[in-house]
Amino acid sequence: MALKQSMALSDQHYLAPRIHHADARDLAFLAATSIDLIITSPPYWRRRDYGHPDQIGQETTPGAYIEALISILHSWTRLLRPHASVFLNLGDTYQDGFLAGIPARFELAARDAGWNVVNHIVWAKSVGRPEPVAYRLSSRHEAVFQLTRAKNAAAIFFDRYALACDRASAANPGDVWPTVCDDLPADLWELHATRSKSGHPAPFPPELARRAILLACPEHVCTVCGTPYTRQLVPSAELDASRPQARRAMELFREHGLTEAHLAAIRAVGISDAGQGKLIQKGAGRNAAEVQRLADEAKAALGGYFREFTFAPKRMVGWNRCACAAPTVPGTVLDPFMGSGTTLAVAQELGRQSIGVDLIVPEVLQKAD
């Protein structure tokens, strides 16, 4: 996906992407604590020579390459807000006939350098890179690491609800992102390869950037304290109407006049009295009398369809806000190796602020800037 060459978005103030012809190792021109999310894919080790004297990826050893990556990560630390994440895409390289283990080396080095790994996502592809020798399998996956400097996992901004809604699913999106998921469980994600109109030789798919932004870049950030707004979610009686069992469950729920209180009681009791549920539910048998009464009423009305509401989806009823009562702005996404500008284009589409940096800026992006 290339940035729109029309500058109509320049009238939308902060939504116009900012592009800098600069080195990812020196971002001193960006303000401290100003970035909500970094999404990037640095040049892979020894996979492609971009012909720039300051490029990364041409180090003589895997260790030197990993050391360079960790040094760059460290330089980005001052830019990140407390809730921020880094999504970094890496592929592996063959060295002397064997895999160098670049993603594994990077993950361990990042941990040693004080980064916490929130998620290790597998980007699976429908088409693998052709291999020149008979003993290699076609490579059809790459790693996407979600990293944070936060010491408390609760401090990270992570909006799983936004991604589930975008994919019309309330399921946990999962950490495997394949290229075909129509006939697979809902936690397998489709990510198709793409070609860039900018002429960049190695763009990653827009869908990768889209999912990372939906998950980890807030829609609203307070302009005073920098706190991201989070969603207020409550259980919903609206199930997946494409499933006959869910449709019947909703019919019974309405026919018997069950209420939000009944729904909350169903979720509180859960499967605690159903078979193996007693063994895995920590709160089993300790629900308040009124909660248990409402749950029993719901069970009598729903029968076997009671289970349909046990893990029912949630709906949004508002925002959890800070106490500043100040204006907000969309979160800011940074891509320090922006390449063809995929991240910026997707951020623009999703209504986020965005900044792109690269040593080599394609001509189409120079015109857009």
How does this model look, in words?
- This protein is of the alpha/beta class and 369 residues long.
- Helices cover 27% and strands 21% of the residues.
- The protein has helices at residues 62-76, 102-112, 160-166, 206-216, 244-255, 260-269, 277-280, 289-302, 342-349, 363-368; strands spanning 18-21, 35-40, 80-90, 94-95, 98-99, 116-129, 139-148, 176-177, 221-222, 230-235, 314-320, 328-329, 332-335, 353-358.
- The strands form four sheets. Strands 1-14-13-2-3-7-6-8 form an eight-stranded mixed β-sheet, with helices on both faces.
- Helix 1 crosses helix 2, helix 4 packs across helix 9 and helix 6 packs across helix 8 (289-302).
- It is globular, with a radius of gyration of 24 Å.
Write the layout of secondary structure elements.
Blueprint: E1 18-21, E2 35-40, H1 62-76, E3 80-90, E4 94-95, E5 98-99, H2 102-112, E6 116-129, E7 139-148, H3 160-166, E8 176-177, H4 206-216, E9 221-222, E10 230-235, H5 244-255, H6 260-269, H7 277-280, H8 289-302, E11 314-320, E12 328-329, E13 332-335, H9 342-349, E14 353-358, H10 363-368
Helix pairs in contact: 1-2, 4-9, 6-8
